[in-house]
Amino acid sequence: MIEWLKEHEGLLWIAGVSSLIVLVASAAIIPAVVVRMPRDYFNHDKRPKGKLASTHPALRIVLRVGKNALGAVLMIAGLAMLLLPGQGVLTALVGFFLLDAPGKYRVEKWLVRRKWVRGPIDWIRTKRGKEPLEL
User: Fold this and answer.
1) What are residue 42's phi and psi, to 5 degrees?
2) Which of 77, 102, 113, 131 is the most exposed place for a label (fewest CB within 10 A)?
3) Which among 47, 27, 49, 57 has a CA at the least distance from the CA of 102?
4) Hey, is 131 helix, strand or coil?
5) With helix as H, strand as E and coil as C, how does 98-132 read?
6) What is the pLDDT of residues 44-61, one digit of tens each?
7) Taking a C-beta distance cutoff of 8 angstroms, is the pair 134, 37 a contact?
């Protein structure tokens, strides 16, 4: 095992630095997304239309493909980080939330209804002068 680690030291450094970048990025991006989210975002049966719905179809396709590609990369990296150094669960969750998957909105609603998720979300929103989420 130690021999394998010595042979793949560069790969481990890349994984460690990538993990740190994802941690810092998610710590900056998640609060920004939570604050920008409309208060009643989770009060609908289907996901409300976003700002991109009114953009040019070609731009919308490019952005969706890019978002899904980034989500897939983060999902794979998160799963790899379950065995390698890094916060694999958080990275995989961020990747999942970027993917356009059937039933994802229901999973998001279910997750946000958990106390241990909703509490920090409402705390971030209150700290930034926004009202807590309406569920």
Assistant:
1) -100, 15
2) 102
3) 47
4) coil
5) HCCCCCHHHHHHHHHCCHHHHHHHHHHHHHCCCCC
6) 888 777 777 778 888 889
7) no
**Residue 92: Cβ within 10 Å count:** 19
d(C-alpha 34, C-alpha 29), whole Å: 9
Query: Per residue of the chain (135 residues), what is the pLDDT tens digit?
Result: 778 777 878 887 887 787 788 778 877 888 888 888 888 888 888 877 777 777 888 888 999 899 899 889 888 888 887 876 667 777 788 888 888 888 888 988 898 899 988 898 899 999 999 999 888
The one-letter amino acid at 51: K
- Burial of 15-45, coded b for 16+ CB within 10 Å and e otherwise, reads beebbeebeeebeeebbeebeeeeeebbeee
Decide: 16 and 88 in contact? Cβ < 8 Å: no
Residue 130's nearest CA partner among 36, 44, 26, 49 is 36
CB-CB neighbours of 133 under 10 Å:
19
pLDDT in tens, 97-116: 888 888 888 988 898 899 98
